[in-house]
Amino acid sequence: MRILITGGAGYIGTELVYALANNNAIESITVYDNLSRGNFNLFLGKPVNSEKVKFVHGELLDSRNLRKVLKDIDIVYHLAAKVTTPFANLDGHIFEQVNHWGTAELMYALEENPVKQLIFVSSTAVYGSTTEPATEATEPRPDSFYSISKHRAEQHVQRLFNKTNAIIIRLGNVYGYSKSMRFDAAINRIMFDAHYTGRITINGTGNQHRSFIHIDKVTFVLSQLLHRNIPSGLYNLTDKTLSILDISEALQNIYPELESFFINQNYAGHDLQVERNSKLLEYVPLADSSLEHELRAFKEQFSFNIGGTGDVYVI
Questions:
Q1: Per-residue pLDDT tens for 202-240?
Q2: Is there a contact between 14 and 8 (Cβ–Cβ < 8 Å)?
Q3: Are 124 and 172 spatial neighbours (Cβ–Cβ below 8 Å)?
Q4: Is residue 295 classed as helix, strand or coil in its secondary structure?
Q5: Measuring CA to CA, which residue among 214, 193, 212, 213 is closest to residue 203?
Q6: Of 31, 39, 67, 157, which one has the greatest count of Cβ atoms within 10 A?
Q7: 212 forms bridges with which residues in the sheet?
Q8: Is a pLDDT exceeding 60 seen at residue 293?
Q9: By residue range, what is the domain housing residue 195?
């Protein structure tokens, strides 16, 4: 198998490259990324099979380059996207250009250069705000520039449902340690603040919910899609639905001296819950795990510890 990963140098992409590089059935992995986040950690430190992995610096909107790298590719993981949390409603143009039209450009190229399987990572954000846990049957109601752009991207991918094995994964909020960290993601940012400042800030009541999944589970599922006979379609992938207070409680057990500050306490916040029992889990089951255990493992990856009750050490 010859694999192309758009956005392969990103948070999820980095972990996926390492996982797939150990698969003897995979002949080559091409990482296609514009490095717009300035994250070069995929290229440093922990060795990866250099004979198997190669890097192409490129943009999704560069149709000529896309068609060139798609030659002889069997599987495409489309991870590349503009993701800026929590500023998902700023600069709508860049979300539209990258997430919507960038995906459209890739789909046009794939219609000319068919592959055996396409795996597109979308977002549960397309559901907007929910009053009850969303399922794959829930009508999307995107309510930000980011979620609108991802929903429009899905519509382009759906054109390939009857032409190849095309799978759309609506992913929950991802957290957990990776070489290519995203500290704009909710749990990762809160974890950083708890560890290095001894304080976290909660905007609103703290009762607002989101659906989350650890990056190790995301990597496992994405890598397993190559080996399971999963029909074309749209699937959710989440693990835990948590409120900000749930996260705060787990962190309090890990950091007993942690201080929590509330701002805008009358603000109820945006609520987005997604049912864990997705159709996808019929093909790739997920093991249960404890949030506190995962966050304690995350803590072990920090380079040094805070001192006293929240003092920050600068090195």
A1: 988 999 999 999 999 999 999 999 989 999 999 999 999
A2: yes
A3: yes
A4: helix
A5: 193
A6: 31
A7: 173, 240
A8: yes
A9: 186-210+240-275+282-299
